[in-house]
Design brief:
zinc ion binding, magnesium, 331 residues, heme biosynthesis, alpha/beta, single chain, EC 4.2.1.24, porphyrin biosynthesis, binds ligand PBG
Length: 331
């Protein structure tokens, strides 16, 4: 016989702090976080991003300092995104293949500063390097050509791995890119370089501030709906994840985060792989705006949303709040 009121009082275990701690089902630690950072040219540069209050673009020296800060806070991994100079952007995004580009210099600086104390995740897609803001090579009608783009993404991934990246994260949503990148990494001797695929990445309205941050927003022609997923779809996300696992992804990502926790839960239920979520720029901005408007207490909003990712089944979360949240957790 199952217990019922008054023998069963669910408030009993909630009645004091120690008891709530004892019965807590989900834990969140700094080790669950990946901190995305924006890199820009120069030295000593700390350039605030208006649409992401509290987030800056840092020059390579500043990135190395942030990486040291992350390691000291117990954050195991950072993610790097370059704001490429306008005169280095082109139709074919060739700067992505330059071994001395901003991304590669940042990877090396972080490695020099932190050794193996922190993981370096790098985004594979051409949008920070193209003059049209699309993630790949376009035809005359602006359609992103799949197979030609994959060939370039492979070279971009190898360029990043050669510079010292630990996790290659293709965010482009081309078909077949995980297999092609995995094969090239194996051939290139990068056996232990991981692939975290942006497996279920939606064509979302929440990416606006990111596009400001990398400088692709104003350039973008059209939208990304021919490769990023329709927000209405779930089955398709599961197929994307299955495909990327079969192609050799070590972990998969769902993106955006909070509005897509149902997808995280479905993926976690179906597959035995590490699942990450990206709490994207628009989500960060929304929390900051809510706090600034007095609609909620900032730290509480941050910690509650991060816990929600863990509860839904995430192994970890990419979040611009990473350092702040880790500081809160470390007391
Ligand atoms: C690039 C990329 C995007 C994000 C991560 N990698 C933007 C896009 O697809 O347009 C978004 C991250 C964020 O909004 O925080 N392919």
């Amino acid at each position: 016989m199952t217990a019922s009121y008054p023998n069963l009082r669910l408030r009993r275990t909630r009645s004091s702090g120690w008891s709530r701690a004892l019965h807590r089902e989900t834990t969140l630690t700094p080790a669950d976080l990946i901190w995305p950072l924006f890199v820009t040219e120069g030295h000593g540069v700390d350039q605030p991003i208006a649409s992401l209050p509290g987030v800056s673009r840092w020059s390579v020296d500043g990135i190395a300092a942030r990486a040291r800060e992350a390691a000291a806070l117990g954050i195991p991994c950072i993610a790097l995104f370059p704001n490429t100079q306008a005169d280095r952007r082109s139709d074919d995004g060739a700067e992505a293949l330059n071994p001395d580009n901003l991304m590669c210099r940042a990877i090396k600086a972080v490695r020099d500063a932190c050794g193996n104390d922190i993981g370096i995740l790098t985004d594979v897609a051409l949008d920070p390097y193209t003059s049209h803001g699309q993630d790949g090579l376009t035809d005359d009608a602006g359609y992103v050509r799949n197979d030609d783009t994959v060939a370039v993404l492979v070279d971009q991934a190898i360029n990043q791995a050669d510079a010292g990246a630990d996790i290659i994260a293709p965010s482009d949503m081309m078909d077949g890119r995980v297999r092609a990148i995995r094969m090239a990494l194996e051939m290139g001797g990068h056996h232990n370089v991981q692939i975290m695929s942006y497996a279920a990445k939606y064509a979302s309205a929440f990416y606006g501030p990111f596009r400001d941050a990398v400088g692709s927003g104003g350039l973008l022609k059209g939208d990304k709906k021919s490769y990023q997923m329709d927000p209405a779809n779930t089955d398709e996300a599961l197929r994307e994840v299955a495909l990327d696992i079969a192609e050799g992804a070590d972990s998969v990502m769902v993106k955006p985060g909070l509005p897509y926790l149902d997808i995280v839960a479905r993926v976690k239920d179906r597959f035995d792989v590490p699942v990450f979520a990206y709490q994207v720029s628009g989500e960060y901005a929304m929390i900051e705006a809510a706090a600034a408007a007095g609609a909620g207490e900032r730290d509480a909003l941050v910690m509650e949303t991060l816990m929600a990712f863990k509860r839904a089944g995430c192994t970890g979360v990419l979040t611009y709040h990473a350092a702040h949240a880790a500081r809160l957790m470390n007391g």
